[in-house]
Amino acid sequence: MLSDLVQYAASGVTVGAIYALIALGFTLIYNSTHVANFAQGDFAMLGAMTTVFVAAAGVPVVAAGILGILAAACAGLLLYRAAISFAKNSSVLGLIVLTIGAAIFLKGVAQIVFDKRFHSLPAWFGTEPIKVLDATIQPQSFVVLAGAAVIVFALVVFTKKTLIGKGILAISQNQLAATLVGINVTTIVTLAFVISAAIGGTAGILATPITLTSYDAGTLLSLKGFAAAMLGGMGSPMGAVIGGLVLGLVEAFGGGLISSAYKDAFAFLAILVVLALRPQGLVGSFVRERV
Amino acid sequence: MKKLSGHPEPHNVGAASMTAAASLFTAASAQEPIKIGAVLSVTGPASFLARPQKRTIEMMVEQINASGGINGRKIELFLYDDGGDANSARTFASRLIDQDKVVAMIGGSTTGTTMSVLPVFEEAEVPFMSMAGALQVVKPVKKWVFKTPHTDTMACEKIFTDLVSRKLLNIALVSGTDGFGKSMRDQCVAVAPKYNIKIVHEESFGPRDSDMTTQLTNVRRKSEVQAIVAPGIGQAPAILARNYKQMDLKTPMYVSHGVASKEFIQLAEGGAENARLPVSALLVGDKLAQNDPQRAPVLAYIKAYEAKHNQPVSGFGGFMHDGFIL
């Protein structure tokens, strides 16, 4: 029984780490514009698919991965410059709908540029499972976890220590005041989109050896990542990771101990309960009111 | 990978209504092209089924027209993509009948889309050749509806026959929650008593789940389970096969005809090594006996398809080939 519980935990951590990686991508865009970017999962798909196809053309996987991240970053740049920046004066809800449109657009482009088949990438340290108490976990799960840890660390340093990162926080507090003290709002918000998209692309590439990828993989990733970010506290990097892991573990233990047929239902029930008791999420701070 | 010998013949329902279809062909004037409709799920989650089907039907129409058509009449193909969505499949089906006035329709890549367009063709009395796997498409027997792939029941029976011959009578069902997985699960449960097979445990997985070790852990805990049967379609069974290997399970695993393609074996990364599944003659074309009547047409199709698309065949395109010939 103990080894079963450990196996559920391993499964939950594997899935949760992927949710956490996607959730991390929501952070910067949310902090700078209060928009939940529903194209985040599609950035992940774009990064992964680009890597798969560039690698298939004979380029070493590492170089292909860098190109994949760049492709996602370009998509983020385009999303801001070609869509969001023209609609600056619309409500947050309008901007969110714009990102959903961008997600559908990316999916459409991907099925023409790439193909409609399922693809995988080789796991970084092979597929020989690691044994813990009769339970097994794929080595790639640790790669995903490590990736999430590195990104959290980088994000915290970026927003707390660098001038640009502080600029993002300033913009989220009060855009007019930020402009008055000499912060170039457009440049910084563009940068937030580019970095978020690059995080998304990285997430897709790290997760693909476990989840496989295809042109339409983004939608579900966006939804689960968004759920994880909400659960942990929108805008907080630590919250994204905690939310992702909690979501993954609830799914695994609910599915394992009660019934796998209601796996997703447990996850959403957990989110409902948390949001009812703590609307700001598990580790989120108070909800900022825009006046 | 071991393969059970399969059911290559199209699943024919009523010979009488086939001739009704044939008479429709000859009734129209000799010069007009024969209009054939197709609604396939070329995009969306079932795209890996429908893409080979689309390529096959286009290739066949090209071939037939190049060699002078049927009785001197060219074939005109009306192809629509329903994106795997049952609602749009139905819209396109109505358009095929009302606007394009087709004499026959091939399509319905999945059970869901097939079931939604079915009444349209029954009402219009236009023959409809489905490529869906589930049994309820042709049961109860409908006058204008046919299907080419083997039914879920046949697949279950094939698996169960093999289980009985290996004396593995206590099984665990791990099925997908999509239409295909559900339907095959129901059929397997229905025919199990006939083979004295006991389903001692049941689990399910979503079509987009990325980790199924939880379900396999629960199966492992039940020591009486002698074999795992996993009806499902798409990428999920490939991940299941990977997790199966990851957990180093020894229980024999059977997957469904819904994953019978080379892609599945690639994606499963060795997890499919000892899995068994029921397939049609197409996938074992070069392994068929020399004197098998299925050999020649099957190999001819494989050659034509691979030459044209530079991609290995998939069994799903083969269902299309069969449907079209009929």
Question: Can you give a write-up of this model?
Answer:
The complex is a heterodimer of chains A (about 290) and B (about 325). Chain A is built from eleven helices and two strands; from the N terminus they run ααααββααααααα. In chain A, α9 (about 220-230) packs parallel to α11. Chain A is mostly helical and about 290 residues long. In chain A, about 50% of the residues are buried. Chain A starts with a helix and ends in a 14-residue tail after the last helix. The radius of gyration of chain A is 19 Å and the shape is globular. The mean pLDDT of chain A is about 85. Chain A has a domain at about 20-220. Chain A has a two-stranded antiparallel sheet with strand order 1-2. Chain B is an alpha/beta fold and about 325 residues long. Chain B has two domains: about 5-150 and about 295-325, Response regulator (Rossmann fold, 3-Layer(aba) Sandwich); about 150-280, Response regulator (Rossmann fold), CATH 3.40.50.2300. Helix content of chain B is about 45%, strand content about 15%. Chain B has helices spanning about 15-25, 45-65, 85-100, 110-125, 150-165, 180-190, 215-220, 235-245, 260-265, 295-310, 315-325; strands at about 1-5, 35-40, 75-80, 105, 130, 145, 170-175, 200-205, 225-230, 255, 275-280. In chain B, the strands form three sheets. Chain B has a five-stranded parallel sheet, sandwiched between helices. Chain B has a four-stranded parallel sheet with strand order 8-7-9-10, sandwiched between helices. In chain B, strands 1-11 form a two-stranded parallel sheet. In chain B, α2 links the parallel β2 (about 35-40) and β3 (about 75-80). In chain B, α3 packs parallel to α4 and α5 (about 150-165) crosses α6. Chain B is elongated and about 65 Å long. The interface of A and B includes residues 111 and 264 of A.
